[in-house]
Each structure stands twice: as C-alpha cells, then as structure tokens.
Amino acid sequence: MSETDRDAPASHAMTQSRRSALAGGAAIAVLAALPRGARGATVTLPFGNGERPLVPAGTFPQKGEMILQRTRPPLLETPFAVFGNNLYTPNDLAFVRWHLGDMPTSVDPATYRLRIGGAVRRPYELTLEDLVRGFPHRRLAAVNQCAGNSRGLIEPRVAGAQWGNGAMFNAIWTGVPLRALLARAGVSPKATHVAFRSLESGGIFPPDIQFEKALPLRRANDGVTMVAFRMNGAYLPLLNGYPLRLVVPGWFSTYWMKMLTEIEVLEHPSTDFWMAKAYRIPDRPDGGMRPDETGVKMVPIGPMRPRSFFTGIANGARVPTSGALTLRGFGFGGNAALRAIDISEDAGASWRPATLGPDHGPYGFREWHAVARFPKAGDYRLMVRARNVAGQMQPMRAVWNPGGYLYNQVEHVDVVAG
Amino acid sequence: MIRPLPLPLLLGAAIGLLACGTAARAAPADTAAGFAKRTVDLPSPGAMFSGTGAATLNRDCTMCHSAGFIDRQPPLAAATWTAEVKKMKAIFGAPYAEADIPAIVDALLARQQAAK
Fold first, then answer.
1. Chain B, window 5-64: residues with a beta carbon less than 8 angstroms from a chain A beta carbon
2. What is the ipTM of this complex?
3. With a threshold of 0.95, does the pTM exceed it?
4. Whose CB among A165, A270, A357, B39 lies 3.0–4.6 Å from A367's, allowing a Cys bridge?
C-alpha cells in the first residue's frame, strides 16, 4: 500500500517526537523504531501487515497516545506497555471501538434518558440524576475486553479489526446493579432475555440500524451486571460510552453497551443483526472449529476465558546467568476468578506456580511475579498460563473460528541467558 | 512494573465502598449535577484511497469508514471480500447496486495484490 493510503487523522498534525514505542504482548518482538519523518511514530504489531500509526495524545478527544486501527468510526488500541505500568488502565488510554459511521459525538445530560420497558409491569424512564440518586451503588474491578482482542494473531487470518493484545483494559466501575432497575419495572414471568440499545443508532444510509445486544435474563439479573456511570472514579470518556455504560463483568465487551439509553425485557432471544448474525461462535465447549468446516451451529459469544501476560520483558532480552530475575505480569480469570498462574522456563515442558499479587475481586487484572534463574547460558522460552476456578486453562494453541474470537493462547517470550 | 492505584483513587474507592453500605445515600460526588454536556470533535474521516482501485473504493467505501481499515486487513479471499461488501449493502445500506459488487471486490483484490 502506498503511504498516502494510511488513514492517519488529517485534522491533527502528527507531530511525534518519540520515534519508537513498545506495544503488543509477550510474544512480541522488540518493536522497531520506525522513523517516518513527518508521518509520526508507528508501532508494528507481531503479524503480517501489522504496522500501525501511534497517534499522539489529543488526536482523539479525551484520549492519550493510542494505536490507530481505524479513524472512522474509531478503533483505538491501548499500547501494551500501558498494562505494565498500571494495574488499572488510565481512562485516557482505554481502548475504543465503535460500529457505526455516524457514531454520536455529543451527549446532553439535560435530555438524556434511560428507558426500561418491554415485558415488564411498570415501564419507566430515568434522568441521569434519577439513576444516580435513586438506586444503590456498587463498585467493582472488571476487565473490558473486545471479543476480537488479538485477532491479528489468529491463523489462518480472518477479516475484522486486526488487533494486537491491547483491545482490553481494566477499570474500577461504579454503577447501579441492573437487577435493581429491573426489579423496579417488575419483569414478566415469561421474560427470557434483556436487550440493550444506545445513542449509537441510525447509520449513514437507510435502513436505520440500531446497535443492539441482549443478555439472557439470568445474566442480566445476577446483581453483578450494572449500569456504570464512573470508570476509575471519573465520568467515562465520551469514546468509552459517556454518560452510562453497561458493565457485564466476565463477558466480552460487545455486551458493555456504551451511551446506554434503552433496556428492553424480551420474552425471546434478540433477532437483531448484532446477536443473530454478528459476534457468533461455534456452539462447542471450546468455541472453535476447523477453517474448512461447514454447517457448524453458531451461537452468540458470551463469557471470556482466562488470559495472562508478561510485562516488562521483550523477546530477545538478555538475562543474567548469575543471580535471580523477577518475572512479572498480570492475568485475569475471564468469567470466573483466577485460580492460579503458572510459568514455564522450558517452552511448556514443565510448569510451576507464580506468586499472585493482591486479589481485587474475580473480574479484574491480578498481578503475578516469579523468581527465575538461568544458570546455563543459552536460549529460554518463557511461558505464562492462567487457570480459573471454573477449571478453564489457557490453551497452547488458540481456537479458530470465522470471527476471530476467543483468542487466549498461552503467551511466550524468548530470552537469551549469558 | 505494575503500579498500584494512585492514593486519591484508593480513597475514592474506600468512600465508594462506604456508599455501597448506605445504599441509596450516594457520596456527594455521585450526583447528576456532575454530568456535563459533552461534545467532541473527531479527527476528519481520514485519508482517501490512492493508487490501485482508488476511484471505485473512494466512491463506494469511504462514505462510512476510513480507508486505512481496509488496507490493514490480512490477505483475504475473493469470497471473504464478497461477503464483506454484501454485508455493507444488506446491513448498513451502502448505496451501491448489486451489480456493482463484483467490481468492488475486484478492486479490493487488486489492491491487496498490489500491496504484496
């Protein structure tokens, strides 16, 4: 592709003094400094055609330096080094993903309403003031991860946003449990699902399209799913869903509806495109299939699986043969609490437990560390693997499905001792 | 490597936990009065295509999404591109005719080939 084809944002000069940056996960080579002159910094994600602009802070509103996946509608990836520096991802560095070309750019709290209706006895609507003052609050730490996080690493490659490992972030969410909102409405005994809609609606051309997602009623009513109005103690950045965002701890981000305006109780599953056609995976325990299979029954994606990462060490790093080195990173359990993180210094032939850091609840990032020694000079492949209390463990090879979802392959980093 | 939460945030969390205990009596900061009207400017739609296939793709694709997203895809088969182009028409209402779809797919494939 020629240089001019890149969709670096045009309304902001890309004056970037920094000429190199670290990004990506543990399996990622040291990212080259790629001087591009006036075009600004880039990062190279570890897959074919993986070069991306690194746009300076302020290029996108309320956003810091981000990896540009798409300008319009915005897809912005969190540079991986951010996770090594922050257990809770700063709001201005949280990844961004919108679907419609005319995504909303303005929110007016004076007219904003949250409507609760459908198969309920008492439909009602709330102002932001009503929501915040009228219901109990809950706070919890939770990872928001795109269903397609790490899609660029999936082989064979599939269409879609070619993310590295940065389509995720960890935050403390403050909000009102959805269960309390549904209780006030009085859910029909025949209800089975709850649908969510937002200001992201319309589209540029007819027919009007509405971004809609739906949860099974049991998940919606579990007391953990909430309508959040704060992220890490602050109001949400507009690009992350200001003023209200559904938070579905343990489930992929596609359900975490941004700019939430409508909650509709259903007596059937949603038939909307985003549930019936998109964001679907094979109806199998591992969610995978062979690329040449046909006729596989597909179902909506839902729960996340465990993942774990190294931080602060890159492929090709030299490590000393004398003394000890403390390896570090973080992990999360997915839809169940983390049970253990194991590390291997011999490419997975043997494993031993890492020491877990403080427990901040079942749904957020948790730090780990492990002391390693490399007495013999030579090459070592380090691996890290998470297990959760539901018995799920990261696989050595990611599953494949047509949407490129569920990637959670064991991460590795190659180091040289001596 | 991982820094703990900054102190003010931890204090905020502690206050929040207290607020949880008192149910509807929210901490003073948690009032709608704090919600401000917010309007943002997004960067312009982004550069158009140039080079292979540009005329077709600028006409039929960039009205909804920026060009770079297409250029950042891995090599994709004709059937995959066809499914994507059909989806853009069927679901998102892209205003090209069914009859135009093969030419759009050809332009995408040619562009991909030229990038190799």
1. 5, 8-9, 12-13, 16-17, 19-20, 23-24, 26, 30-47, 49-51, 63-64
2. 0.88
3. no
4. A357
